[in-house]
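In keeping with the milestone schedule agreed at the kick-off meeting, the structural modelling team has produced records for the first pair of proteins. Each record is given below as a sequence line and a structure-token line. The laboratory manager (R.T.) confirmed that both were archived under the project's standard naming scheme.
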Amino acid sequence: MATRFGEDTTTRIPVKNITFPDLTFVTQLGRRDNFSLFVPRHQKMAERLIIIFMGNNATSMLMLIKTLFPEHIVGDPMLLLPGMRTFEDFMAVAVYARERVNPYLYVYALSVAILHRPDAKGIQLPPLSEMFPEKYVDGSLFSRAREEANILNEQQRLPLEIPMDYTATDLEPEHRVAYFREDLGINLHHWHWHLVYPTQGPTEIDINRDVDQLRVDLSDIERWRDRIVEAVQVGRVVDNSGKDIELTETGGIDVLGNMIEASALSPNYNLYGDLHNFGHVVIALAHDPDHRHLETFSVMGDTATAMRDPAFYRWHATIDDIFQMHKRTLPRYTASQLDYQGIRVTSVEVDTQNAPKNTFLTFWQQYDIDLSRGMDFAPRGSIFARVTQLQHSPFSYKIQVENNSKESRIGTVRIFLAPKFDERGQPMLFNDQRILMVEMDKFQVTIKNNPKASTISRDSTKSSITIPFERTFRDLEARPAGQVDADAFNYCGCGWPEHMLVPKGTGDGFPCQLFVMVSNIADDRVDGSAPGQGTCAESSSFCGIRDKKYPDKRSMGFPFDRVARTGVDTLQQFLTPNMAVIDVNIKFSSKVEPPKKSVAMVSMEQKMLMQSQILCLLERPGEPIFVPKGSQRAVFDVPNSEYMTDKYRPLMNDLASRFKDATLHMPIKEIVMPNISQPLRLARNDNFSLFIANHQKMAAKLIDVFLNMPTYEDFLAACVFCRDRMNCDLFVYAVSVAVLHRPDTKGIHIPPLSEILPRKFIPASAFSMVQEALAIQPDGLRDTIVIPQNSTGSNLDPEHRLAYFREDIGLNLHHWHWHMVYPYEGPRVIVDKDRRGELFYYMHKQVMARYNIERFCNQLGRTRKLQVREPLDEGYFPKLTNINTNREWPGRRSRARLMDVDKEQFGLHLDIESLERWTDRIIEAINVGSVIDAQGRAIPLDEVRGIDILGNIIEASIISINPNLYGDIHNGYHDVISFAHDPDNKHMEGFGVLGDPSTAMRDPAFYRLHAYIDQIFQMHKSSLPWYTSAQLGFPGIRITSVEVATEVGRKNELDTFWQQIDLDVSRGMDFSPWGPCFVRVTRLQHTPFRYRIQVENNSNTTLAGTVRIFLAPKFNELGEQMPLNDQRHFFIELDKFSIRFRSNPRVSLIERDSSSSSVTIPFARTFSELEANPAGPPELQPFNYCGCGWPDNLLIPKGTAEGYPCELFVMISNMEDDKIDQPNPITGSDADSSSYCGLRDMKYPDRRSMGFPFDRVCRNTTMQLKDFLTPNMAVADVRIFFNNHIEPPKDRALNMTSS
């Protein structure tokens, strides 16, 4: 290490050799664990580390230690801390502890020590936002920050902008004050206050969460509260020795504060408990109080983040109620106590530049934070994040005062601000208004008596409650000694942020009252010392002064800390001559000053390397990371043994020499991994299901970790670290989602899951033959293993006639890929996509239409919707092996009954009554035409957004409008059916294929469930107004003819047949010899064909339109011609594309190949193809996102030997009604597969409802399709002929790459 990092070292800091203290207790908190000052065990760890850091080099030091931790310092502390007597000793132990102790705990304890050690006085601390920027800055920013740090030199870097509303939207009313709660300065203030005033809790606490050694009983909190309230009511508390301590008007509030905060100064912890901290803990763990989900505490559990949470303010409103009970017991201030004889305030004015008198101006202002000092293992040099904060224009007070005495006087000027009206617009009574008085400033002034009148001027930047600046790492390096005011900052850095001094106000001016009082210094002075003298007068109102008493003898908040004297109802009545009040307005402007942007690029060479790395990452996911991968025999070179699992770490050196065939070495960056304990709860050999809420949360956490890696190099390192530790299915899913959604992996392709995890797609019986071929036969001469067509059942089961459809590999890959593009949980930016809920409805609606046509072709009736309380007739036995559990997937017998599910191992407890209740609520919402959101507001299910809202509710992703009310019926029914074989865990079976998106569509029950789901959607669609002829028509456009033609020239006749394809399964065969090994499967295929559409443009101008092509059966399962209101449910979308029609010539011919369909994927890119050509041709660029498209081989239904009669519908709609304003124009094949999957980073490319024009009921319930037509539509009769022969696979050599 010394030689590796020697070249760029310019300064070496020698560290003294000392006898190291025992850090055993402190290091019980893992380096990657969360640390909370509200958790008593963490307090004890902090206490121990502070004691170690504090040392014993002065009497005052010993007094501080004994004051903070009295019960733990017994005898001479010098014996406890040998050697910690000098700054050099302190520095040495700090260096020793730095990489051993949890970073948050370390920084806290070190900061407290620097603030309180006499020999560290004047040493400055940088703001926590630069040490741990992740506590304050949107995590999604760090990938861009690391990219800039790695690619651009420091002079080229531009600030990275953070959106103002990245945590929520204004649909959440509380988000309206997010600018306040999430302000960096406010949260830094709270953190810094707890540095200045460290807390320390007791040692005996019951335990409920083993991980935190914590037990919190709500009845204890209530009992502590009741005891404190009782003490307030009787006016005294009982200390540890049983003595009464009076709650006097001078010391009572201090005693009460120590009790409620429960610091070491609490007079009787055992009696009055730990109300404040345990309240924080209860709220911080409300999402997982019994550690059932292995969740850690939320932001409320960290002093650096607690003020972000709305619950912080509700909890402190509760705490303040107790303080106010005490304050109401105190005698009221008399006029003589308030007055200052001889002093009279005659006028007050606020002067703001470019504003009317007595007007404050507020606005948004951006500023830059240097992230680089908190970005571990990143290149040096500043990298800035640009955040937006509330700001006000600087202003000054002008206070006119008369001194009518015979001598100069010294006074304390106290300035407060309060709203003039309450939330109902009523003038405030004094006893309400006093609670809302915010202190703006407090300072001393000398008032001369000659002349009698004088003007006091004071700039807002000098406020006694605010921090006028922040000292950054850069500032401290440039000026290590600092100035007097900067020296003060280190203690008073807990002061209120200067930019938040003035409330936001409103656009038309928020009316407030500004109160000014000049009080007598003789009643204010502490120990004869004037306030403000010393090293730390800045921010003293909120934080005190270092090494001095609080600089004001009056009660904090004076004169508004007590109930007003009798006869005072308004602020005006409260005034004495030494006070004044003026009306002021706070005007808010929504302008933002000044935004900037920066752009980073990634080269094609980097993309190619990244593609290779992702392929190696996903190949043979059950095989350790150190085994060479791919045709290049690539291996990841991990930076240290920590990347190895415990099993292989001791063998690291041996393994490197053992696998000598590696020809490509990929170095992996060393990073500090975030906490991944939650996804690690799912064992490597457990089942993983996206339909189980607990697993969704695990996946969301891992996705969040991967997405928030600052650079691609960090992302790759995190993946390598996780790969051999995580459940394989979970890992592959999370990596795939991250690759799909990270900006720096755009254009990186994912190989098909059928090659990564072939056992999800290929019958188990094939794999013994595959392993034999790999082990015995040489590469290039291996047999192809042929999979029989009827490998899962026989035609004794009528449903088996559809096995070719349900078990089609492309179909199941589509379903898997769709759920990668649209994950249930994760960062909201990747979940909350344009029209996601509507797309969930439409994609599954199309699945059902296609499945039902296949049923008609096989002489079966349409799918019956699920009857929850009746036996499920359809059984299914998949014949697949689960690679994780090494067991066959469970089957389900025919006529199985659906039961309540109680599967503790999956964290799943689900009763059918709940599913029915949720369904009833959704149906009720459809009937009344509106849903109720989480705030109790009615949201209409209108014809524009209604289906999208409904889709989000039924799918139940994190963007469901009210999951508590409407539940999770889609995933819940998937779970109930997938556990029908063992609902109560009696046989310890995992879920069936319906529990996995990559296998669910194999099961006949999938289609019965989605027939049930679609029925609910149709209730809503039936409530919408039907389309009028004007909405359907396109004036000037007329379709004169439509036909389809195959390559051999047959018109309006489509051909289908069986075709074999070969799949290389070797990339998913762990611990097997390398080299391709193919299995041969048979699938439905159709002959390529072309649409020919003749169109007339009868207008005088060029027109743009959208061509929409659908296919539907002409007759129902009984052979009867269908009315359109029935037939519309069976229209399958074949294609949709835009085109322009010239008016000269008037007639044009549109020709379109079936392979260009907007719903299908024409191919899947294999490992070998991606290795040979990582970038791929241009038409492959959208594949990674649109890979969820419908498989091309299933574009056309199977048909029948005699020709299955269908109707081909073509419509051209007006582009003016279809087009969407996109952030980037759609070009070329970017629209491929968009009908079912949307477009990456863009809106859905069609403004019409999905399925238009067949998504609503028709104006006449008996009309036929021909009656529905307008001139811009046409219909042609077509037949689909099925030829029961098998075509051999195409030349495999085209898809192979040599080693």
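The second protein of the pair:
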Amino acid sequence: MVDPANTPLGKMLLEEITPVVMVLRTPLVEEACQKNGLTFVQMLRPFCVFNNFDVPVRTASDQPYRLQKFRLRLFYDSDVRQPNLEVSKERLKQVITQAGEKDLSELCSELPQITNALSRSESEALPLWFQFFNKELVHTVSFSDHEAFDHPVACLVVVSSKDDQPINRFVDLFNSNKLPSLLNNGAMDPKILKHYLLVHDNQEGSSEKATKILSEMRSTFSSDCELLCINSSPDGVVEHQDNPWVLYSSEDLPSQPLRCFLNVDDFNEIKDLMQDFSSKHIIPYMEQKIRVLNQQVSATRKGFRNQIKNLWWRKGKEDVVDSPSGPTYTFSSIESQIRVLGDYAFMLRDYELALSNYRLISTDYKLDKAWKRFAGTQEMMGLAYFMLDQSRKEAESCMDTAFTYYLKYASSSQQNATRCGLWWVEMLKARYQYREAATVYFRVGAEEPLHSAVMLEQASYCYLLSKPPMLHKYGFHLVLSGDRYKKCDQIKHAIRTYRSAMSVYEGTTWSHIKDHVHFHIGQWYALLGLYDLAVSHMLEVLACSHQSKTMQELFLRDFLEIVQKTGKTFEVSKLQLPEINIPSLRVFFEDHRTYASSAAATVKERLWLSLEEEMVPSTSTARTNWLELQSKLIPKKYKESNVCVAGEAVKVDIEFKNPLQIPLLLSSVSLICELSASSDEMRSDANSSSVGLQNNDESTKLNHRDVDSENSLFSLSDVDFSLGGGETTVVQLTVTPREEGVLQIVGVKWKLSGFVVGFHNFDTSPVNMSGKQRQKANHPRSINLKFAVVKSLPKLEGVIHPLPKRAYAGDLRHLVLELKNQSEFSVKNLKMKISHPRFLNVGKRESLNAKFPACLEKKISQDSDIHSDSDVSHTVFLFPEDTTIQGETPLLWPLWFRAALPGNISLHISIYYEMGDISSAIRYRTLRMQYNLQVLPSLDVSFQISPCPSRLREFLVRMDVVNKTSSESFQVHQLSSVGHKWEISLLQPVDAIFRSQSLMAHQALSCFFLLKNRSKPSTSEDGTSACSPLLGSDVRLGTEGSCGPLFDIASSPLVDFHHCERLQQEISHKGDVNTVDFILISRPLKSDTYPVVSDPPHLFSHHACHCSTESTSPISWLVDGPRTVYHNFSASFCEINFHMTIYNSSDVTASVCIKTFNSTNNGDHLSDATPVQPATSSSNQDGWHDLPLVNDIRVTSDVLGPRTGKSSSVESVSPFIWSGSSSTKVKLEPVSRTEIPLQVCVFSPGTYDLSNYVLHWNLLLSNGDGLRSSGTCQGYPYFLTVLQSV
């Protein structure tokens, strides 16, 4: 540590703990000094400081030392008293207030930066008025009776040479009745050093009279007399550039150059006077008194015997009841004399002598419970330790003890504790213990709020100066200080401390304390009338989503009140309420691409391009993207901008979010735009006009304009809306250019609660990306908000009605497409393409006014046509060539809708059209339409087909229908098979299958049908086939009265939708040629109780395509012959003839071998044969029922249960045998059949199962060189009954 005397505390002690001289003067003395604007004490004060003193001093020891610096403190007799507490507080308040007024300019500057604060030294960081305030605070405890360093050491008696009887005036001035209380109440020895001074004003005459009076004074008062001549300037008032009174006077003295009657000779005379007074009178007097007191103390208190005596005597005083302020000590008591000895030694820089006496007296005060005096000696011990630079721990301990006893035990000693704390703080700061010093500051300012504010602010700077800096504590103590400043109405100081604290919290996540600081700074600025600054800080706390609802309401309410007080509308850039999601900004404009709805504009561009690829004219054979395509269609002068059309709105979707829990009211929300109108060559500079915000700076004020003015180059939409707490909404704003030129969308503006205009400029600067960045699909790109406006063009508007938003699967409806063109120019060459032809199909023009569903009913007198019109295509629909749209007459065209499958479906329709009779940069346009609909499950229909064992080319069909809706009921109307070769019929009456007229929600239904293949297959004889004229067959699934007529499945739109379904379902059944299609038509009912068809009528069609009719074997056969025979066995055995028809359903040549076995050796033959594939299967039997054999109809191979075992005779001789050939081999061409004769010999009556035969089949390759597949089938059960004839 540096020399203690050169530290701030050392310098303070050299100024404050120095000898005091009491001044007694006559009024004429003051009159002579006032000619110079100074009092007598003020005139002498600059000359009481001696920095180059060099005076030898000898106190109690024999070894002298030299004083290099010395100082006297001069006070009038009236000032030698303890200051009034209330007056001192008011004085301190004035000091703080005046300091705040001087710092007013800093309050309007930019916020301080923490980096600047950290780079400053202690002297630069601390406000200058802190030091002055601390001194004033120390002076509040001056002239205490328990401390001798404030007691006058000498008395300077001053009389003017103009006074009458000057000698008597000297005597009268030191009258004991007029002396201060310290000299009269016994606190100090009234016999102090007296020095007599005669003042002569040279402006009043020569000094001869003064010299005579001086001689008389010396004869009366010995040699302690001096003469001082002042105002010696012969030329009148003299101006002195160097004013020596500036540094040693109160702040009420002028700081400008001094104008007075004092010349250089006067200055030197005053200086010599005070130096002689100090070196020849004050210091020798104090030396002498120290030596005398030291001898007395040594004789009475030092030594072991005296210490024991003192302790014994002190012990006897324990029973004495002390006064609340402690025992009273007079100046003659040994305790007071020891304290005087210590203080005198301290003032003469003999710190060791002072410390020894403080130690000696400290014990006595503690035993006497004189706590204030005890604390005072502990305080001086700590200072002595510091000045000796010894035992830091002891010094801090003494200061801590003194501070504690001042506060806890000594009554009315708060000011003494404050002074002790300030000296303690300086002691710690001198040793760079800033953190500990801050703690002491915090303890010092515990009582008085205003003083506490100053102490907390000083504590904050200690944390800043710590190593490392404790920034959080620095900011927090500044906030505490500012809060106390505000409570004491020191608003400017409160703002200053909060501004400094903001430098700590700026850029951090401490959102609550940042809100607190900004909010209160804003409030306090408003109290000072600085509304612009108040608003700027209140804006920082508006988007306080982390705060409670109550705090949010408070912040917003106070902000609006401040704005109202200004009496004007504030315009704020990037106003935080509401929040604007710039990345979600979406711009919708129409060039050659137009949109029927906002939903259509949100669809990805590549989807539209793929849909329009066949309609848009090709610019080259190579495939190009839409950017290249547009560049070829749009002239070069528009390439750097988007293109829009005059009179057509550019729409911008902006997402507004309310971050608060309270509602916000927004009004006059609109875009900020610029439009430069120009000639055909797009001259950007000449003759251009601009409307809107000039984007030069974010703080630029808005140019107010009438958005509805007809003279404006564009019109803007103006939206008012409110946002609930936490609500997010997307608002669409539009700008409609009226003239050709260049349109720039600059930003958006709005008005919050009718008082504050907020605006936000969009970033339209291009983003330069490297190659790797371009590969990232999610890299944010700036939106191009610059548009080249071309002249007005025709524009189609389209709508489909009544297209439902929700439908059930299979729902079939008749719709109408309506197209309008409001322009005076016509459009031509219309084309249309639909993304999902399964859902939407173009109808015939003549069906526009057809009544639905009557138009789909089957006409008895008219044959159906399975082909649709030539202009209906599943790719591009071409409107008739003569079709034009212009003016008020719309174009209506029929459409058919069918909900093909459940799910959320997006239908996209694009209509291409060309401009008619108009020259424009855009030669064609497209109308893009998009509809979202939800398709719910309705009827789930499935089919199972099995070959009929008793009939060739006949099949049993099982249809399962499940109603998967939650509340709807349906009436099953008809089932149709599609195609010329299929015929379907019922196996049971309709009443037996559909006993209820409705199929309710969650209900299931199973029914069976017979399916016949009506095409004539080729035989082995002719090898030709013929087609039946049937185009399909229908089965009514209800009575004619309840269901109505049948619907024609071979007419549009059913045939068109069925074609789409076949294409869709073809993939899973590819390669299967033996398939059949079914169409189930149903109608919804109003309710289950009253099963009446819904009104308006609805129709549902369910399509099942490519249902396979193939069995497990490509070979099927049928044994035909008698079932019952009568024969007389007494005459002979019975011979019965049969024939077997074999059918090859495959598309290749088949080789079939039939082997018959007798019943006795049946098992032997089967065991030698190839593993037999049963003719019947046990799979897929659920819901199937056996049919009576009397109808000659057998169920299919996978209908019957497992084949029963063959009956065996009890006898050893077989009852029948196959009498024909035991093995027959035939070859069948693809899809052909043949007949083979069979014969059985029966030897006795009975019922016989003629299934003991097998068929071995092989499918041959096309070249006949090998086998593709093979198999073996067991014969079907065939029961023959032979009876004995009569």
